[in-house]
Every structure is written in structure tokens, then in C-alpha cells.
Design brief:
This protein is an alpha/beta fold and 274 residues long. It is 32% helix and 13% strand. The protein contains eight helices and nine strands. Helix 2 runs parallel beside helix 3 and helix 6 crosses helix 8. The longest helix is centred in the first third of the chain and has 14 residues. It is globular, with a radius of gyration of 20 Å.
Length: 274
């Protein structure tokens, strides 16, 4: 018979060391390890959710706020399509590496049995999340939804895809019990009917929205997937930074506008913004 690995006793409980992190990112207030760059710290986040936003750092004789630096990085990442240079197991992920690590940390901390991913694109995200989840639960599932086939990359269609990445169907984990793909819009009746059946099988459900970032689509999905998100879990909405980038250009409130509207109505007193 196969001999299964058993963790040592000290691995079975989580030991908190030092000060616990704040409950919410907006309350983050770090202290410097060194004093390079004439750093001046100011607590509190701004309206865009940037923590310690008004803190400053002097770089090349210029004093910049943390908000200047972080939003500037976001603009560089977006304009140069740097998301096309990230992959997992050879499959395009299209995630900022810092975001990807934080999402993995959130999943590990919360340990959902079912992760519903709205927006598969190439499938790199689904297999990345599944890699983390099956470490703590071999029977966990990433249920990933998209109107198009994963072999079709929207970024490649505009000349910004990953030139060296492979089809997600070439990976073992995509073909395992830990990942399931359903083609369709997240709010299509047949998809919601499948979700109604699937969600009953799992104790803790997390929803990850990374599909169409248009305001109306995001808001519709948040309203529909609210009922599947278990109490104490998360409904994660990605790319809220697009509101700040693109609303001045075309007027669409994008994901952050949808989150704010959802929190004014259906999500009020049911969620808090982390």
C-alpha cells in the first residue's frame, strides 16, 4: 500500500509569532527597517485603498508619495502589458506577481474548499490557486468560468499575449479532480444552476471575480454570487485599479464602481471591504 506523508506535530497548529497583522489592509501601518531615502510615514489609506498613501520617499532628489509610486507602477504594468510575462507551470497567469502572492496567502489563510473563479482566460490562475488549495485539502476544487475556451487568450488577440506559454490542457493539474471548467457567462442561467448544485457540496466557498471588468458585468455577478459566498469567507474583486485608470477616459466605473454600488445595496451589512 502507498505510504502517505504525515506532517510533524508542530505543523498541525498555526503558531502566531510577533504582532498579528491588522484586520484590514486600510489599517496597515508598517515601520521601516532602515532609514534610506528620507522616508516620512503617514498612516491611513486614500480613497483608492492605497495604504499609507500620503507617506513620502525621496528618490533622485524628488519627493514622491507612496500613492505616486504605487499608482505609477500600476500604470507602467498596464501600459506595457507586463502581465503577459507572468506564468505558472508554463501557462499564462496575467497577474502582477505581488497580487498573485497575496491571493495565494489569502487562500492559504482562509482555506476555502471551493474557489469559484469568474474569468478563466487561459487557465493559469485556476491551476495556480488549485496548487495551493490541494496542499491543505486534496479534495478541494477550483470551479472556473469563462465565455471563451482557455486556448483563446484575449491578450494574444491584441498582440500582447505570452509568446512562450502553453495550453493549460497540457498540464496535469488542469485535468485533475481539483479543477473544473465551465464555458459560459458567470450569470448565465445554466451556470448559476450548476453553481446552485455545486455549492451545496462544500463547507467554505470563496468567490474570485476576474472576468469582464465592465461596471455592469461586475455588479451583476456580485449580486448573483453573493448567495454562494459563505459567511466568514471572501468575495474577491480583482482589478479595481482600472476604475482610476480608465473612468476618466471613457466614463465606465469599472470594478471599483461596481463594488461601491454593491456595498451600498445588496452587500450592505453583509460584507466589509478589506
Amino acid at each position: 500500500p502507498e505510504r502517505r506523508w504525515q506532517p510533524p506535530e508542530h505543523c498541525k497548529t498555526r503558531v502566531a509569532q510577533g504582532q498579528p497583522p491588522p484586520d484590514f489592509l486600510r489599517d496597515l501601518s508598517l515601520q521601516p527597517m532602515t532609514a534610506i531615502g528620507q522616508m516620512r510615514l503617514a498612516p491611513g489609506s486614500n480613497t483608492w485603498g492605497i495604504p499609507m498613501a500620503n507617506s513620502t520617499l525621496t528618490i533622485n532628489g524628488k519627493t514622491l508619495t507612496f500613492d505616486d509610486i504605487l499608482f505609477g507602477y500600476d500604470l507602467i504594468f498596464e501600459n506595457l502589458a507586463l502581465f503577459s510575462y507572468t506564468s505558472w507551470l508554463g501557462v499564462a497567469v496575467q497577474q502582477d506577481p505581488s497580487d498573485a502572492f497575496q491571493l495565494a496567502s489569502l487562500i492559504w489563510r482562509e482555506q476555502p474548499d471551493l474557489l469559484v473563479e469568474i474569468g478563466t482566460n487561459t487557465g493559469g490562475g485556476a491551476i495556480y490557486y488549485a496548487t495551493v488549495m490541494r496542499e491543505y485539502n486534496p479534495d478541494s476544487l477550483v470551479f472556473t468560468i469563462d465565455p471563451k475556451d482557455p486556448a483563446q487568450d484575449w491578450a494574444s488577440a491584441v498582440g500582447k499575449g505570452c509568446p512562450t506559454c502553453r495550453d493549460v490542457r497540457c498540464t496535469e493539474i488542469w485535468n485533475s479532480k481539483n479543477v473544473r471548467f465551465l464555458q459560459g457567462r458567470a450569470s448565465d442561467p445554466h451556470v448559476l444552476a450548476e453553481m446552485d448544485t455545486l455549492a451545496r457540496r462544500f463547507k467554505k466557498v470563496m468567490v474570485m471575480h476576474d472576468g469582464s471588468h465592465a461596471y455592469g458585468d461586475v455588479l451583476e455577478d456580485l449580486r448573483n454570487y453573493d448567495r454562494f459566498t459563505t459567511v466568514g469567507s471572501y468575495m474577491v474583486v480583482q482589478d479595481t485599479k482600472m476604475t482610476r485608470m480608465y473612468q476618466p477616459v471613457n466614463g465606465n466605473p469599472y470594478p471599483l464602481g461596481a463594488v461601491r454600488e454593491f456595498m451600498r445595496e445588496q452587500g450592505r451589512e453583509r460584507y466589509v471591504v478589506d
